[in-house]
Design a protein that fits this description.
By secondary structure, the protein is of the alpha+beta class. Helix content is 39%, strand content 37%. The protein has a six-stranded mixed β-sheet with strand order 2-1-6-5-4-3, covered by helices on one side.
């Protein structure tokens, strides 16, 4: 009888240990995966911003999903769909140049096949004395969706950053 009790206790301890170790490993895998996703999303955003700053809106257009929705403070209504964004951004091609930018307060929240990127963006123009002058400050929120192995922006929202961040 003592042997059965000891065997039961030992078996239970091993079973619980295996479960706990398994859960810990699963959480580690999730954490690593979320970190990799965040790094990927941020890299995609920086690539698009770099192109945008050189007058090339296609960096964003290439990562917009067909059903993208878009808000910014210059438009009175939401813009719906990739075709509408191609027209809207296409009209701006070669018109916007940003010499330097800083992304701050970057956060990526991952929930399954959805990732939400939010950050503050500070744009700068190089002056004749080689100093940089801040030109615009933005709040940016983007919702990415993983579809067919690719992250695409399904929603994009820009607003002016108020009040001044110190």
């Amino acid at each position: 009888m003592k042997t059965n009790i000891l065997f039961s206790i030992l078996f239970s301890a091993i079973f619980v240990s295996v479960i706990l170790i398994g859960c810990k490993q699963d959480q580690t895998i999730v954490d690593v995966n979320e970190k990799e996703i965040a790094e990927k999303i941020i890299a995609m955003e920086k690539t698009a911003l770099n192109r945008w700053g050189k007058g090339d809106p296609w960096g964003y257009l290439e990562i917009f999903a067909p059903e993208v929705t878009y808000y910014n403070p210059f438009e009175s209504a939401r813009i719906d769909g990739l075709d509408a964004m191609k027209k809207y951004y296409g009209d701006q091609a070669g018109q916007i140049f940003i010499d330097k930018y800083d992304m701050t307060n970057i956060k990526v929240q991952v929930h399954g096949n959805i990732a939400i990127l939010s950050y503050n963006l500070f744009n700068y123009k190089k002056q004749s004395d080689a100093a940089f002058k801040e030109t615009t400050r933005w709040n940016s929120t983007k919702v990415y969706c993983l579809t067919d192995g690719n992250w695409k922006i399904i929603h994009n929202h820009w607003s002016f950053l108020q009040p001044e961040v110190k």
